[in-house]
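Re-run with default settings, no changes from the original entry. Doing this only to confirm the output is reproducible before filing.
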Amino acid sequence: MMSFAQWGNALYAGDKSYPIVPNRKIFVGVSGAIVLLSFVLMAVLGIQRSIEFTGGSQFTVVGSAVTTQQIAVDAVKGTGLASEVKVSNVGTDGIRVQTESLSSADTATVRDALAKAYEVPATDIQSSSIGPSWGKDVTWKAAQSLVIFLTLVAALMAVYFRSWTMAASAIIALVHDIVVTVGFFSLLHVEISPATVIGFLTILGYSLYDTVVVFDKVRELTRDIDEQKRYTFAELVNLAVNQTMVRSINTSVVALLPVGAILVIGSLLLGAGTLTDISLALFIGMIAGTYSSIFIASPLLVIFEEMRGRRRAHDELVAAERTRHGHTTDEPVRVAPVVPGRRLGNENQPKRKGHR
């Protein structure tokens, strides 16, 4: 059994290859089905938006010996002033209660009911109110930031790679990451807060970086593709994906370990809050981003390129050349093997010049 380093060297040299691009229609189809399922989940289960987006009143109980959530639900509904109550734990001795918008008098009544239910002074209960207009403004700004980010990314990719196919493939992969992450939030009934939106923008940057790494290798391998008749564009892209696979895996693992630790610590010790919101978005989004850069962006790039007449003509030349030489199957793409360096010995080291 080969080691991880040997496996990486075999992928880079082409001695071992996974048919990702040859099975591009399968991967793109599966990804499309996942995106469709995410939209269905959002439509059926809805998107849980935090109070910052919807507006409402919020109460935070601190220093309570009992942190049972049902006590808060019964206390608030017992006042008859709120029909929708959301309760979550904050830390080890805190309770957060969210309701629809309440007047000042109703806020005082609910605060007193919570103080009595949890047997804490009313001064230990913090209350705040967010108006619906402010929530709409936050929603608009969040959507605006995502649109601006995607627009700038599309322009940057088109200028950097000088290829609209690469820009389009990268944007579709980024949209996939956002839709899948939001769909997962909908499935788990987790609220989307402003901190979550920050996490979305962060994972877009991470996914974009991973895609750029793969596309850089694609550009390197296909720079003079029209000057040779040995390999097709799809075969070289598949080699690029395999060559960068180890780097993508290593980067993902290194990034997911601290994010996963923050997610576990934030959920178990601190309860619901900003730390949990952003770490959950990062954790899901990084996994989706790694998947999309390998199984979506590169296969889509080949699909878009094969729509161009110039690319189809070159593929036909490669097929004709292989037929002329009697090659009935696709020739595996190989490069120079990776040979580890070694010390040459003292006699081969640079000589020091004598001092005068």
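The chain has two domains: 9-49+134-316, 56-130. The mean pLDDT is 80.
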